[in-house]
Amino acid sequence: MPASSEDVSLAVQATMKTPLGRDYAFVSGGHSLTGASSSRGLVIDLKRLNHTTVLHNFTDPMTQRGITVVMYEGGVTSFGLQSAVNGSDWTAVTARASSVGMGGFSTGGGIGFMANAYGYAIDRLVALEVVLPSGEIVIATKKNKHSDLFWAIQGGSGQFGIVTKFYQKAFRTPKNVKVGFHVVGNGSVTQSFRNTEVFFARHTDPFSLMYYALAYLPIGWPHAREEEMGFRVTRLMVTLRFEEPEQPHGAHEQPENTFRTLFSGLSLDSSLSYTVPFADLTTLSDSFFPAGYRRGFWGPQVINVTETYLSAVDDSFRDYIDAMLTRGETPSTSTWVLQYMLPGLNGHLPASDADTAWPHSVAGHQTLFDPGWHRASSDSVVEAFNEVLYSLARREATTVGSHNRNPGSSSSVRGLGAPYDYPNYIKPHAKGEEVWGHNTARLASVKQKYDPECLLHKGRVFSSPGCVSPGFANVF
Ligand SMILES: Cc1cc2nc3c(=O)[nH]c(=O)nc-3n(C[C@H](O)[C@H](O)[C@H](O)COP(=O)(O)OP(=O)(O)OC[C@H]3O[C@@H](n4cnc5c(N)ncnc54)[C@H](O)[C@@H]3O)c2cc1C
Prior knowledge:
- Helices cover 25% and strands 22% of the residues.
- By secondary structure, the protein is of the alpha+beta class.
- α7 crosses α10 (307-326) and α10 packs antiparallel against α11 (379-396).
- The longest helix is centred in the middle third of the chain and has 20 residues, at 307-326.
């Protein structure tokens, strides 16, 4: 458990002195689903490397101007970061669940609650301190001699070195967030799909967002009474409106107008609304991810959200629940969630797919299939349903409209017209080109340069010569 960058460097060098160390992993929040942070050999646990602070007048390597950044060390969690900056008026993009490590989150994309207003974490990074597999400590920026390393860490995950310090551009903390949980009545399901389609097509406010969620919840949730024991597939519309720190109550839209179309003509079984401080948001979603289950965390991005698509997903999710119940499984913590993403992310997307390791000059609405189950013998069944959900997204909902691009984008979108899959939600067996597109080959050459012996070979491993010959490579 190293507590400083120098400790990390010493730990990395120590790995080379023992046969067990040759099989080492490092872990931040421990949420990797690809086994990337686990090892039967040695695990370097970064949880004590968790210092976080707001720095003013940090020189932006790109513009040479003074900016405000949040500096966080490689082992801090999302909750740890929000707690540390709470009260400073500044914050950074973190994950939406409190225990997610900022290490994995910030190297695999980084979609937070405020992505619509401020973009993804990887695009807000301005500098990184990295311990290379050799033990050398380097600073990487978009402009210096390690710009290739910086580029690779913007979406290539933990294959290039251990990031000991992240410097992420800060933004002003919204004081409050109005959160709404709305349960769609059984007679209004089709109308809710229709309203969601319209909302996704027309919404323009970066400071409000909605999730359409399917969940297997206790009947009557959130007011379930004992006599109503039992579960059912529940459709939830979750709304969030962030108070804009610089223009409270809406430069873009009046709060009361934001979600009006979403609920028109709908009958809701229940509707809860309350206002919470921004710093508390990461703990709000924790109850949706209880421990003690095997769990998936997968989902592609979708450009056009249509009623047909939502209805097909609804059918598949119910089929999945039925299949799991038939197997004697407990699927009660399973959800499927669609997050509205503002086209162009308010100007925060890269101009080109080549600018970052994860190509994302086009942003789609983010889907997430988060099944929970118990038995390893059900793994393949769950994965098969995940494939069905992927194919629905691909088939029905991927035509790129020009409004989805960052204005000024010059990138060409691959044949299907779809955005690339999201590294942080990478599905089992994903091919390199599905996630990293044409950047996959360059990632392999950066891997060879910084980790020629393929010492970091857990999880998804790029196919550098050093990783292909011992058989570690699995991203082609
Ligand atoms: C409940 C839950 C909620 C989630 N919410 C979100 C969300 O809101 N938004 C989102 O984008 N994703 C989310 N994710 C996905 C999450 O971002 C990824 O699973 C991420 O990889 C987890 O990072 P970690 O540090 O917790 O995991 P770990 O297992 O510790 O690490 C994951 C990978 O990152 C590497 N890594 C960790 N720390 C560092 C470091 N300091 N330097 C370099 N590499 C490092 C590891 O070696 C490993 O390869 C969520 C996942 C779960 C399970």
